[in-house]
């Protein structure tokens, strides 16, 4: 009888880990998310939002309230609670410029390679 109870308890504990987790998000984390959202609304940055349930949404934050914010992505909008957000990030302008410079360098390298090859074949 005790073995069956112990096995039942273990199965329940393994099957329901959210029951044991603290459902209240950390207040410091909420304040960090709110500051990032406010910064994104002011600057109209393209952001990547990772939620606690595993979703990864990329879009622009249009509105921010006291408890939630509105994210526009892929032609849709959704309202997310600050407590639902695990992480907000964005790519800096410097990263964009580095990508453009790398692409330009690659194009110049390809053209230079073609010129050297064409010149070497004629001589």
- Low-confidence blocks of residues: none
Helix content: 40-55%
Q: How many separate helices? A: 4
C-alpha termini separation: 93 Å
Q: Give the C-alpha Rg.
A: 25 Å
Apparent shape: elongated
How many E strands? 5
Secondary-structure-based class equals: alpha+beta
Architecture overview:
By secondary structure, this protein is α+β, with helices and mostly antiparallel strands. It is built from four helices and five strands. Strands 4-3-2-1-5 form a five-stranded antiparallel sheet. The longest helix has 30 residues, at 93-122.
Can you summarize this structure?
Helices cover 53% and strands 26% of the residues. By secondary structure, the chain is an alpha+beta fold.
Structural descriptors:
SH3 type barrels, about 25% strand, 5 strands, about 120 residues, alpha+beta, 5-stranded antiparallel β-sheet, single chain, about 55% helix, 2 domains
List the helices and strands and how they pair.
Layout: H1 2-15, H2 17-20, H3 27-43, E1 46-51, E2 56-64, E3 68-73, E4 76-81, E5 85-89, H4 93-122
């Amino acid at each position: 009888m005790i073995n069956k109870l112990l096995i039942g308890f273990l199965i329940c504990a393994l099957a329901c880990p959210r029951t044991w987790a603290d459902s209240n998000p950390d207040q410091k984390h909420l304040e960090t998310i709110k500051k990032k959202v406010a910064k994104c609304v002011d600057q109209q940055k393209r952001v990547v939002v990772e939620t606690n349930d595993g979703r990864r949404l990329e879009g622009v934050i249009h509105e921010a309230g006291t408890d939630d914010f509105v994210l526009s992505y892929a032609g849709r909008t959704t309202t997310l609670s600050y407590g639902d957000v695990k992480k907000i990030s964005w790519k800096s302008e410097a990263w964009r410029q580095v990508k453009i410079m790398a692409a330009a360098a690659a194009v110049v390298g390809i053209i230079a390679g073609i010129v050297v090859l064409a010149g070497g074949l004629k001589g």
